[in-house]
Amino acid sequence: MEPLVKKKVLTGILVVPPLVAVILMTPPLILSLIVLVATFLGLQEFYQLTLPQSKKGVHSVGVGLGLLVSMAMVYEERAEIFLPLLVVLLLVLFLLFMITSASLSSATSSTAITLLGIFYIGFLLAHVSLLRQLTESSTYVLFLIAAVWSGDIFALLCGTWIGKHKLYPKISPKKTFEGLAGAIAGSSLGALLFASLFLPDLGTGFSLFLGAGIGILGQFGDFTESMLKRSAQVKDSGSFIPGHGGMLDRLDSFLFSSPFLYYVLLFWAKEGR
User: Fold this and answer.
1) Rounded to an integer, what distance in angstroms lies between the CA atom of residue 179 and that of residue 159?
2) pLDDT by residue (tens digit) across 127-156?
3) pTM here?
């Protein structure tokens, strides 16, 4: 096994079981707190990549806005508290950029990038917590983790062993069509296996559909983050987990796949399955 593959697999084996245990054995609040911590760290890395020249105070306002968006989505009954704070922080953010930027266009651009981070991480990642609210158990969250993890492993193996046709070398030189196919196949198989054991009501066809969607969107998230790192000219978004880079490197596959899974399952439940 290639050293990089071995390192990533071993790190995943060490990280995933404790995470699964925490999700299974603790109340929903704990998962929400984990998501908030991940959002906090992810936003910090995002602003370090995209707004490296801005002061830490500006980054802090962006991080605060992202956390408020996440909490407002998960705790709708408290939205009347979070929304006024969001408006105030948005005004503070724009004023900070007006004061610290050389021109109006620069301030507007920086504000837009900050808002992108709030949506990209704060809004999208909150759907992991929303998945937990669909049922009284954590099964759908674990389904997502199983599909994403399987897709990542298969993408890495296929890309390393048989990857020959580059997907988009200007953005991510190592990504291949074979790796993409491996991700889709891996997520589909992971979803099917998990569903057959713990979610039999999903059925074979629907499980494969969900897995394929998670695989495709997981790779899209990975590709999007590669574009951010390419723009910032860095290899990893950080060094949060050895062998896996920063927090964003770990979150990227969940950012688009978690909303997909949440809204499809929500529609499926409303249609009476």
Assistant:
1) 4
2) 999 999 988 789 999 999 999 999 998 998
3) 0.90
